């Protein structure tokens, strides 16, 4: 059994919180980042006694001067989560009267189909090979098509194995971020491309230098002459264009449990543009 000393340091108590709440590593990193920023504000190591409404409200007000409302709201959620956990443990009083952080409505931006086609055309001309000998033109074309057909996140794209892909293109997986079961399906073109890659998982970056993936991706986008965007942009683009014709299918397509999450992915300027204008002057 793992036991934790009754340390006053928030960094120490964070480890207990992460273990008890079974928090994923990515989320644990974000929590630790919040504690670090709190310490930078205090100019000392944060301790339990710093969890007071006055101190935390001043911290959030200070963050609002240099960070976006969405970022400030995220740090508020992180700090309150730790604070409430410690209050449950009897280590401090529960939070009360904590400053609210208003987040603006999401405004996702998707690529147009012409932009995505231009990106794909540029990928098909990519030079060089991957470590397993796969032409980079095949790798980049495959990951773009699979990302578009499946709307999978980058973490899931890198984890898909050949034996998870059925002959009809259906992928059977459990999403890395949420743990939810999901069954996206690939087009025949995406399936043919991914079958050309012998490495398994086929879409995983094949070197330990992960930064190189992002360097080459940015270079590809720049060469295509389209607006900047990462793989997440393809997820938004796919959801947006599906919503234009079949809005009822977007929730399942994205692998979400809640329909409200669509507002973070569907670009309404494309999916539901203004149909009518006022009378012409």
How would you describe the overall organization of this protein?
The structure is a single chain. It contains twelve helices and two strands; from the N terminus they run αααααααββααααα. A two-stranded antiparallel sheet has the order 1-2. Strand 1 and strand 2 form a beta hairpin.
Low-pLDDT regions: none
Overall structural class, as computed from helix and strand content, comes to mainly alpha
The biggest sheet, with number of strands, parallel, antiparallel or mixed sense and barrel status, is: 2 strands, antiparallel
Q: Which percent band covers the strand fraction?
A: under 5%
Mean pLDDT score: 93
* Cα end-to-end separation: 76 Å
Please state the CA-atom Rg, rounded to the nearest Å: 23 Å
Instruction: Trace the largest sheet across and list its strands.
Output: 1-2
Q: How many strand elements? A: 2
Order of helices and strands: HHHHHHHEEHHHHH
